[in-house]
Amino acid sequence: QVRLVESGGGLVHPGGSLRLSCKTSGSFINIAAMGWYRQAPGKQRELVAAITSGGSTNYADSAKGRFTISRDNAKNMVFLQLNSLKPEDTAIYLCNARILPLKSGWEDYWGQGTQVTVSS
Question: Is 96 exposed, middle or buried (0-12, 13-18, 19+ CB in 10 A)?
Answer without folding.
Answer: buried
